Amino acid sequence: MEPDIADQVPALPAPEDDGAASIIPRGALPPVSLIATTGEPVGIDQLGSGRTIIYVYPLTGRDDIVLPEGWRTIPGAAGCTAQACSFRDRHQELLAHGITRVFGLSSQTTDYQREAVARLHLPFSMLADPDLVLAKSLNLPTFEVEQKRLYRRLTLVITDGRIDHIFYPVFPPAEHADQVLSWAAENPPIRSGARVDDQSSRSTSTHND
């Protein structure tokens, strides 16, 4: 009997929580505009009302590109394609649970990201940040490999223009969309048009727990 190929692939090393998310500011978002794979600029501070998921990742690989040496041994590095596919497969469920929009974000170029969006049939856009502008503006964690600085994997939940929640570290990447979906189901956004008595009732039940 042939051995299962999956059993021969070494497990990805889990990243440790180094506390980097604790220094990310939770207030108003910086006036940073990034180009999406649609060709349109997306202002991080202009996302408007609703809840946006921005999952930040190091890089996606492809057959004609050689990944950095020892990539799979770097905690939190490998698994970007699997993560993108997880958000693809859960996209409609995320929308049904109050998510207005989803973006992937990396330091790769727009052209590189467009290939991934097309090949993986992603129903959402990627944002290119080759100069790590958002990292500098929000103190997002990065790491260096082969003289290239890349984003560490994390996910920002932005509700009505403010960071509502941060997933960090993210592991395993292939299951991260499920983690976000579970959180969204447990933490529905409070609609701006919600009745005061509805909000009061929610607050009261919290105090009575």
Please supply descriptive tags for the structure shown above.
single chain, 209 residues, alpha+beta, 7-stranded mixed sheet, two-stranded antiparallel ribbon, 7 helices, 29% helix, 22% strand, globular, disordered N terminus, disordered C terminus
Quick structural gist:
The chain has about 210 residues and is an alpha+beta fold.
Task: Give an overview in words.
- This protein has 209 residues and is an alpha+beta fold.
- Helices cover 29% and strands 22% of the residues.
- It is built from seven helices and nine strands; from the N terminus they run αβββααβαβαββββαα.
- The chain has helices at 5-8, 80-89, 91-96, 110-120, 133-138, 176-186, 196-207; strands at 33-36, 41-43, 51-56, 99-106, 125-128, 142-145, 148-151, 154-159, 162-167.
- The strands form two sheets. It has a seven-stranded mixed sheet with strand order 2-1-5-4-3-8-9.
- A hairpin with a 2-residue loop joins strand 6 and strand 7.
- The relative contact order is 0.21.
